[in-house]
Protein 1
Amino acid sequence: MSPATSHPEVDGLPLAILRKRTSEKWSGHSDEILPMPVAEMDFEIAAPIRSALVEMIQRSDTGYMGTNLELAHAFHDFSESRWGWELDPEQVYIVTDVGVGMIEISRQIVSAGDRIMIHTPVYHNMRTNWIAELKCTQYDVPMKQEGMHYSLDLAAIEAGYQAGVKLHYLCNPHNPVGTVFTREELAAIADLAQKYGVIVLSDEIHAPLTFAEHTFVPFLAVSDAAREVGICVTSASKAWNLAGLKCAQVVTAHPRTKALADAMPPAVKYRASLLGAKANAIAYQSADWLDAALRTLDRNRRAIALQLTAKLPEARYRIPDCSYLAWIDLGAYNLGEDPSKVLLERGKLAVSPGSAFGPESSQYIRMNFATNLEVLTEGIDRIVASL
Ligand SMILES: Cc1ncc(COP(=O)(O)O)c(C=O)c1O
């Protein structure tokens, strides 16, 4: 069997089944609304994850998190074979989710009032909620935009470091613009961070979803400087659809950053879910399911381009390098201050508003395409019907 057919197809379930789900995506709206916001997948989870969880429930293995080496080793093996990254399993810390990981490690680095660097447009919790929870303020270095291509503004990053920023949130790869950064960009950031004494938290939750023609580079695999200044926060939750199971990983690669992770309260680990840790471990061993999901997502990201050209020729969209989030500029259609509201009211389509990701993105929407082709087509038709 060739690798391309080594796993049965992974595709979006029918709407009648999805509407029975109780997650945020499926419980947030009435049935007349087609929901395509929150980053959850409409796929069935990988069979080995399902079986492992059922087995644990059958054994009533539902207590607290123990010494869990299985997850650290599974993540090590996945990272090595996928990205050539040799991480140290002893420096993998289990946390509740990526949000908690980012906040708990940040608490070891910043105090109330400090500034944290971000790059808008960026994942809304990174831009607002996490920084607010830390009582810090944001230092925004917007992504440089040429057409629908986005890149990091290294000169402005250095100016921010010079101005005293001590903590930098990198969304690597970048949500919502779907950019996978190059080794050179990441190496340049690491060198600057080392020079100015900045810690870089690299949120790599979307990394496993990088499409084949792009190369994801884990920040801690970039250089010695990156290992000294960088901390990776990640989870299998985005790529294998496990967000409700509550488990993520903080990874360090240097005594200095290890000391920061060691200083997190011991309770951080116990607040993660035992079921989530098992699901993450099995996920990292289920690369065949991931590859099958990526084939479907690849079909969908290209279908969006074709359909937009045919049905919404003024919309701007770049086929993303990774993940299942389409970042679409609807500015040419004059849909007012918030196009997502118009789509909800007129088209009965729920998408994420661009303004959530940054002040310059109010004319954009973010549409989740981890679904079947029928739902995807219906979503685009609902945009057309809203104009
Ligand atoms: C960049 C990024 N980080 C973190 C998260 C959320 O992760 P968690 O649910 O583990 O906090 C998301 C969710 O979409 C995301 O896009």
Protein 2
Amino acid sequence: MKTEQKTIVFAIVNQKGGVGKTTTAISLGYGLARKGKKVLLIDFDPQGSLTVSMGIDNPDQLTDTIADLMTCMMQDAEPEWDKFVLRHDEVDFIPGNIELATVEAGLVNTMSREQMLKLIVAHFRSDYDYILIDCCPSLGMLTINALTAADSLLIPCSCEYLSAKGLELLLKNVIRVRKFLNPDLKISGILLTMYRGNTNLAKDISELITDSYQSALHIYQTRIPVSVKVPEAGMNNRSIFEYAAKNKVAAAYEMLTEEITGGENV
Ligand SMILES: Nc1ncnc2c1ncn2[C@@H]1O[C@H](COP(=O)(O)OP(=O)(O)OP(=O)(O)O)[C@@H](O)[C@H]1O
Ligand SMILES: [Mg+2]
């Protein structure tokens, strides 16, 4: 059952690929569930990576996905909501698959096309403490839907692939979304992922981000280190907490969960 707290909807977003969005959505989701929170994950990426990590080998064969829910919203139809929610251990999730790409194309001709995911999220707010939306690596209409549906953004930035320019572009989109669609949208923070603390590159990149954005944005104290246990956990359909409880990445995601439930940076 949901606790008394106000529901918080996070979009885990960065148009750069492979920066740890899906890993963060899953690990934070499990971290929050371990603290007794009721959590819903939404796979909002046509790649379906979150869905695969939740134990579904062929997401493209699924029929009841977030893409179908989006289609219902676009057609003003009332879905059978419950059949879209699956469960994996302690968290609920709505799967996603390649159909989302078709939905994205169809949004062009839909009235209020930026608001479709917001309608879906609104339905589930009363059931969950946290709803985490795993975004795809683009700034297209799916991501604009996620920015419109969210209360707050969590932006993972890999210390290997970061491009400061990419962050600037994302922030420009946030400003436009705030102006036209979601004035209360907050940025919870930037999360440094795949952080190799012993390398100069990681230090340089984290300094670059801190110097460029610290005055305007929160940067989480927690940095997520690199570990081979992360892809291994994904391959075994397990969260890092179940797969390698004592691993440094599990400890880091637990700290991130603490930072977020501390409540100062929502
Ligand atoms: N801390 C980590 N240490 C080692 N490998 C990691 C770590 N975090 C993520 N990875 C691996 O890096 C790859 C990309 O991670 P992930 O899928 O979370 O990124 P993403 O931003 O969701 O990617 P996409 O943009 O394609 O959706 C995956 O193989 C994942 O297992
Ligand atoms: Mg992903």
